[in-house]
């Protein structure tokens, strides 16, 4: 049979566990939001770099002006 003290101790233990779980969830949420921001920034940077590389690369079938033709 459980006494009032035992029940109170179990309730307190559950409240402590709940508080720790809430803190862990808050920390995970914060970390997830930071990662989402970083991913968005990296995606934007990658898109800008792709545009720059495409602007520098010759179009298909064209040779860059400073390259020698293949028969040289």
From TrEMBL:
Signal sequence region: none
Domain of life: Bacteria
Keyword DNA-binding in annotation: no
Coiled-coil spans in chain: 4-52
Keyword Transferase attributed: no
InterPro entries associated with the record: SlyX
Protein name from the UniProt record: SlyX protein
